[in-house]
Write the structure tokens for this entry.
Amino acid sequence: MGRGPKTLLCAGVVALGLCASASADSLGSTAMLRLAASTVLRAELHHDGSAACSKLYAPLTATVDGKSCAERWDARSARLLAKRGGAARLRADLAAVATAPITLDGLYATIALPQPLLGGRTRFYWTAACWMLMN
């Protein structure tokens, strides 16, 4: 009784904050994160840029210099696989996904793979009810 608008506003803000940080932990489980990382790695092993792009954070899927996301990821896969030991490194990452340490921080998560997927680490963002790879 007698709760003012400020108290209710504070309670609402706290509840929203708890929901946002809990959503990635409960809905975006570590199993879902491992699945997203596996999807990207399998896509690279199979030159499937479309599958890789399906797990990228939306800003990374834009057309760049006239090339679609799938075209850029197909080219990336070709470069990775053309390097000596490239396929072996991707397979090692794929094997490591099952047990790699994961750090969850609200709507962000990282998975410690032997060869990071983008930007020196493998970082994901919880959006649209799934984990999306970001840089």
